[in-house]
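Structural prep section.
Before we set up the soaks we want a predicted structure of the protein with adenosine-5'-tetraphosphate in place, mainly to decide which crystallisation condition to try first. Input record follows.
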Amino acid sequence: MKRVFSGIQPTGDLHIGNYLGAMVNYVALGNQLGREAIYCIVDYHAPTNPAAYDKQLLAQRTLEAALVNMAAGLDPDKVILFAQSHVPEHTELAWIFTTQTPYGDLTRMTQFKDKASKLESVPAGLLMYPVLMAADILIYKADTVPVGDDQTQHLEIAREIARRWNLEYGETFPEPQTYLNQDAPRVPGVDGKAKMSKSVGNTIGLLEDEASIWAKIRTMPDDPARIRLSDPGDPGRSVVFKFLSYFAAPELVAVLRQEYARRGVGTLVVKELLMQEMMKKLRPIRQRADALRANPERVLDALEDGARRARAIAKATMEEVREKFGLLPRHTKSKA
Ligand code: AQP
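Run finished without errors. Recording the tokens verbatim:
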């Protein structure tokens, strides 16, 4: 059976970067026959970045992340959805992998260097993040991992960990492949520069208030090639057009590009259309989120059922791993 796995952090409000880069593919792969899809709210990853972790909010955010994924189309009858901490085998496997992973492989990770450079005191967990991520994936022997391209380097390390293990302890894990949304592998922030990230504060939240979204779109940087209205402009350099291409039909984008090039429309019109097209996609998600919020038991039940199903797979892998790793099996007391 082919297996898909991915995780999403409960570190704040999910944004359209998470949605386009990863969640859209969670749903698409979850609907494919012949694949088992496993998705996890990775609550043990959240405290690795002290700037994004809040013990008062962690449980609520974990529930909310599951709720938003269900509102975005994840069907817990078709996929396994659960909270990472409900399947403790993830951290057990992560420890075994930690003992087998060279320190230098972890210190060269771009995300580690980036995040660590902003902290006064760097938790060891931030360094170990990719090892826990490898354990999250490999404990299910998953071969396909839908993520944004910011995770490409972490997937390389997961493959290396699998390869090293298979060589040393015998064939156990597949080498998991990154599965990108080719149309939106890295969604830029509303500033048009850095990747859209919760920690940078350049996001559009999936459930954000419409007035607040419009305020962000209205003030998005304009096309740098159109300083004066008479300038021809270049939609290829315009972040507004980029966002439009995520949400509008390609025919509409093509017509608008032509109109824009012959100066028939200005950026404000494109921004208004972007708002309109984006809300067409986001409104149904909000409606489903409201319905789930009125009935949180549905989300809690889905997580409970998901953890039970995930744990059955994780336990079987750990039995195999413990034996291959050479640990003393637990002894069953004889009755005599
Ligand atoms: N801007 C993005 N474009 C495409 N994909 C993205 N992802 C995140 N941002 C973008 C993908 O979303 C999935 C879940 O991400 P995460 O929970 O690991 O959070 P993150 O990558 O840490 O998201 P942020 O907002 O960037 O958080 P901070 O600021 O804390 O680092 C992943 O598959 C990710 O690739």
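Observations: Strands lie at 2-8, 35-41, 80-83, 144-146, 177-179.
Flagged for discussion at group meeting.
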